[in-house]
Amino acid sequence: MAWFAAPREVGERLREVDYLADEGIVTSVFLAGALGKPLLVEGPAGVGKTQLAKAVAVASGAELVRLQCYEGLDEARALYEWNYKKQLLRIQAEDDAWDDIFSEEFLLERPLLKAIRSDAPTVLLIDEIDKADVEVEGLLLEILSDYQVTIPELGTITAVRRPYVVLTSNATRELSEALKRRCLYLHLGYPTPERERDIVLAQVPGLAGNLAEQLARTVATLRSLELKKSPSIAETIDWGHTLLALGRAELTGDTITETLGVVLKHHSDQARAVKELGLS
Amino acid sequence: MIGRHVGFVAALREAGMPVSLAEGLDAANALMVIDLMDRETLREAYAATLVKRPMHRAGFDVLFDLWFPAVTSGEGPEDQAERAEYDADTPVEDLRSVLQGLLMGNADDPAFREFVRDMVERFGRVEAGPGRQSWFSYSVLRALSPDTLIARMLNQMLSERGGLPEKLARQQISSNIRKFEEAVASEVRRRIAEESGIERIARSAVRPPVDRLDFLRVTKAELAQLRREVYPLARRLASRLTYKHRRGHQGRLDFRRTVRASLSTGGVPLTTHLRPKRPHKPELVILCDASDSVSSFSQFTLLLTFALREQFTKVRAFAFVDTVDEITKYFAPGTDVLDAITQMTNEADITRFGRTNYGNVFTRFSERYGDAVGPKTSLLILGDARSNYQPPALDTLKRLASQARHAYWLNPEPRAQWDTGDSVATGYGAVVPMYECRNITQLAAFIESTDVGG
Fold this sequence. Notes:
The complex is a heterodimer.
Chain A (H helix, E strand, L loop, with lengths): L6 H10 L6 H13 L3 E4 L6 H11 L3 E6 L6 H4 L1 E3 L1 H10 L13 E3 L1 H7 L4 E6 L6 H13 L1 E4 L3 E4 L5 E6 L7 H6 L1 E4 L5 H11 L5 H16 L8 H14 L6 H7 L7 H10 L4
Parallel strand pairs in A: 1-8, 1-9, 2-5, 5-8
Antiparallel strand pairs in A: 3-4, 6-7
Chain B lengths: L1 H13 L6 H13 L5 H12 L6 H11 L12 H4 L8 H13 L5 H14 L1 E5 L2 E4 L1 H8 L5 H8 L5 H34 L1 H8 L14 H28 L2 E4 L1 H8 L11 E3 L6 E7 L5 H17 L2 E7 L3 E3 L10 H11 L10 H12 L7 E6 L11 H10 L2 E6 L13 H7 L2 E3 L3 H10 L5
Parallel strand pairs in B: 5-6, 5-8, 8-9, 9-10
Antiparallel strand pairs in B: 1-2, 3-4, 6-7
Helix pairs in contact in B: 1-4, 2-3, 7-8, 7-10, 9-10, 10-11, 12-14, 16-17
């Protein structure tokens, strides 16, 4: 199945689910579908990487299968596991059960296997791959290049229908060349003030247009300072919600000082922002 | 199209971007499914398939603009409505007004690009010799000097100056001016490429990506970019070190426990017990050359020191020019990096006569802070080993190095220049292993090959 017919269509359908994509996102998302390659999305925290995968799933009416990576993630949690308890019970119940305890019945499906075997359209989200150990990348290579999984007891399982794979990474470590080579690469950075304003307006209904504009410009200025942690889109949206809850119609210096904690989470960053923006 | 594609891929490789054969094929496949007439889609399709590191993106964009130019001279769209505002005889002052209008608007406006093209046409041409001409962005920027428009624009945009609104407006304007300058530079490159061939300009147009930048040759803007690289680098180093520690968490055989456990299996040592490795708490002592000859390098290393400080339990940092002072206190976690550096340069006692003197520095260091270096310490010296022909105090350094668990010297000069002039690189290198460290890639390689933390 073709996921999307043209880059333009990607943009329109993502917009319908309130995800505002720029040219780069639209083209990469389209190509990942058209070429049947995994899409590796890299960028700072809170710029909508995970959200992109969710939006693609909703926009294309596919099921979302999510694998959250963390340190210590292994095959048994990512791919499949045998249901030992059930196997033991079967052996105890029947003496000649030794042959058929490695069958479908005893297989516990984990996200990767589930995505491969599903015959409905599926978006497989492998989230924060940089948090997982290097070995997991090796495990993924077979799945990402050939869309198949080898289970020693059962043989090789090939995808009935290729899932749409999205990997996200915060770039806390460099991913292996082998993995990068197999993926299309999309770097999600901070948006332009215009796009950020539109995003805030889409995500915070009820916020006045000019306030969103001021928010976006202020956040862009904050990002141009050398901060430890630049504010993310998610934090801009939080800021929008905050202002809405406080009922502020204008982003004045005082309002910024009061609510700066929503966007800047380091004391030194706040001090620096107050100084550079001329607040007090 | 095939020829152009292959040439483009080759140019990317020449500019230092690792594009594999498979990735080239992916890009070619991508060309089959997209609309080739849409230039931005083409650009993003190439970027998605070929550029897998954000820091390579800038170089990629320059090359893409050269190989797939938006228009060629002489056949640009002649839109009368756009041209109405100015023509070839409009005085410069009026052109500046047009520019002012554009800078206050959105830089993605097609009129913006149109204007850049016309201005390069008008001001960018410089006679390079009889019958030859060349193009320069400098002359365009000098004629229009967008920076001097800022005050006028601010007056027009704001009812009153000062405070937050001015900051925001300034930010918008300066970002647009930067875009204008970039657009001019890219248009000039395109003109040159048209006249003397893409390959020639391509080679000189692309700055190396951040991780290959020479520390001693960075521009101011690039230094800011380098600074942004430091945090991820330090975090990556720290995570690498913890990874290493976890890997080797089991130490030597615990004989007693193994024998004890073998009793339950009839004396056969089926399960072995290993002693848990004692966690080594690395201590880092950094001696950093802060003289002018290595100023951008030392700025960078100070930042790295600062970043490492948050990752390691014990870091002590010292800076020197011709005498040495401890600078650890300026880099307490939670302080602002840039402030810390300014404060350090103002307050720390590191200069007597302003000329680097390594010999004196090592002597003073071992007198005043000799106890900082112990058997658990890794000693890291950062500097160019240029001592202005002063006595090098090799013995003192030898003693310091033998006290420490490890000692390393990172030298930001290319290896070929070591021992030239007043450099005592080999002399010091014989005492403390010296590594060439000219860019982030080399720095990362150094950390990986040696075990600074463990």
